[in-house]
Inverse folding.
């Protein structure tokens, strides 16, 4: 087994640097491109810890589809002038960063609550023994979380139909 | 030999072979594209530089290198320079998961002929195919030119719409194979369907193969779907402001993307590196002729498998050129009609058909 700590730390640092650029840049396109960089970097981290499926889905969904839409709309609307209104000490920005940080805090607290035995259940070795992580994920998604999965797909269809209805309205 | 050193050497060798083959095919394709155009249109084509004009790509490369490297004054320089790099990187990264043979045996080591055998190989390729839309958008926008921006808009709309039917076609095949792993797909397809006919994806589900084939034309921006560059309407589209080696990078990226897409098509629908008819006989003849042992048989098998994959990919590439010089360009609304009103619903129906067929077969 090759030691992946150092390359992973390097990737994390790159992601963090890009995230800082994304937060403090005044050019909307630069923000979007750095967010794309962060998403690619996290996909790399997922890949390194052996979660290939999550990594590729991250690339397909976020980098391949959602960010294309972001960048597309930034380019079409030419959002340059809004950059000047941005201030680091504005209450809106501070509030947003505070809530994001608390979300990260809650997440890491929840992960830390896990006991080592619970964690070992999802280790790479356990995944390989169960037939690879795509198989395990698919199995738990379509059996244990089947209803949640269908509920999400209905929610997405509702959102899609809503978007089409709103777009078709005559203004 | 130390196993770590051996593995590292093997990986580096595989990277070099993949890069060498992919980038080495590009000049041959450039030559064939232009000679083929002449052939299809009943004219000689380039025939002055070297025998049959074979040295023409070399002359082109020298020209690209010695032209002035120029950046338009009002371009966004960073993104302008980044676009050709992404264009070239995305397809080259995607090629890393294509298996080009089963394995060879060197000494007592087994070398698998695939750079990255990851569990979800097919989605990995789709992911990198999805990244190919960025160079188009970035190049078009950063050049700060109306025609380029129009090309970028067309390109991104087209790639995003055809990705859906491409994904659905692929999904219907995943139902048959029951795996994302490209090696297992090839093994699955090598079993017999009817006597000597192998159970290739294209025989089981010809419609999905057709949809996928059409979609890769749109994904790689090739005629009849080359609207992002459409010379007669928007000059050269998204790469209008690019010259010298930056243009060459876009040019190379187009051919690399074609190779990647053909390799994916072959692996999913045409049996991948599985033997072509007659190759088994060839293998037996070679075994009898040279008195090969088990190791030798495996290595010859791998060689034949590589030849099989290469000839299939070469055929698909030939069709790319054939179609380019036979069909006129679609109008943009026709392109969108074909994508959304025909391919998308039909591939949905096809997905249901494949699901029923798999359910029935099990």
């Amino acid at each position: 087994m090759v030691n992946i700590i150092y390359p992973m730390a390097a990737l994390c640092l790159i992601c963090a640097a890009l995230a800082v650029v994304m937060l403090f840049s005044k050019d909307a396109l630069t923000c979007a491109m750095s967010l794309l960089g962060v998403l690619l970097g996290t996909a790399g981290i997922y890949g390194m810890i052996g979660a290939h499926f999550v990594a590729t889905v991250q690339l397909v969904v976020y980098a391949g589809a959602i960010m294309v839409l972001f960048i597309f709309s930034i380019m079409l609307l030419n959002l340059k002038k809004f950059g000047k209104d941005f201030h680091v000490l504005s209450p809106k920005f501070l509030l947003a960063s505070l809530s994001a940080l608390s979300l990260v805090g809650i997440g890491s607290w929840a992960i830390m609550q896990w006991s080592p035995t619970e964690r070992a259940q999802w280790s790479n070795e356990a995944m390989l023994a169960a037939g690879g992580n795509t198989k395990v994920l698919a199995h738990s998604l379509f059996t244990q979380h089947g209803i949640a999965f269908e509920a999400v797909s209905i929610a997405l269809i509702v959102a899609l139909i809503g978007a089409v209805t709103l777009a078709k309205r005559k203004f | 030999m130390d196993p770590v050193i051996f593995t590292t050497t093997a990986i580096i060798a595989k990277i070099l072979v993949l890069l060498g083959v992919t980038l080495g095919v590009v000049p041959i394709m450039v030559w064939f594209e232009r000679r083929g155009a002449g052939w299809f249109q009943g004219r000689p084509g380039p025939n002055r530089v070297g025998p049959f004009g074979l040295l023409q790509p070399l002359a082109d490369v020298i020209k690209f290198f010695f032209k002035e490297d120029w950046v338009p004054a009002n371009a966004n320089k960073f993104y302008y320079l980044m676009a050709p790099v992404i264009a070239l990187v995305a397809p080259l990264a995607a090629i890393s998961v294509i298996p080009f043979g089963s394995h060879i045996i060197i000494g007592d080591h087994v070398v698998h002929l695939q750079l990255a055998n990851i569990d979800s190989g097919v989605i990995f390729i789709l992911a990198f195919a999805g990244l190919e839309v960025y160079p188009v958008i970035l190049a078009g926008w950063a050049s700060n030119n109306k025609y380029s921006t129009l090309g970028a808009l067309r390109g991104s709309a087209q790639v995003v719409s055809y990705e859906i039917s491409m994904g659905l076609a692929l999904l219907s095949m995943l139902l048959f194979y029951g795996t994302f792993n490209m090696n297992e797909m090839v093994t699955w397809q090598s079993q017999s369907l009817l006597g000597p006919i192998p159970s290739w994806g294209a025989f089981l589900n010809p419609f999905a193969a057709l949809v996928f084939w059409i979609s890769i034309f749109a994904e790689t921006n090739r005629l009849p779907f080359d609207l992002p560059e459409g010379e007669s309407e928007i000059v050269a589209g998204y790469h209008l402001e690019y010259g010298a080696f930056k243009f060459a990078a876009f040019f190379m990226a187009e051919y690399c993307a074609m190779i990647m897409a053909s390799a994916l098509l072959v692996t999913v629908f045409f049996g991948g590196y599985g033997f072509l008819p007659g190759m088994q006989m060839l293998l037996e003849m070679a075994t009898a002729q040279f008195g090969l042992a088990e190791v030798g048989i495996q290595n010859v098998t791998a060689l034949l498998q590589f030849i099989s994959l290469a000839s299939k990919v070469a055929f698909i590439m030939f069709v790319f050129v054939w179609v380019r010089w036979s069909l006129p360009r679609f109008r943009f609304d026709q392109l969108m009609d074909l994508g959304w009103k025909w391919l998308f619903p039909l591939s949905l129906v096809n997905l249901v058909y494949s699901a029923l067929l798999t359910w029935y077969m099990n």
Remarks:
- Chain B has a mean pLDDT of 83.
- The radius of gyration of chain B is 22 Å.
- The interface with chain A takes residues 76, 79, 118-120, 123-124, 126-131, 133-134, 137, 141, 149, 152-153, 156, 160, 163, 180 of chain B (CB under 8 Å).
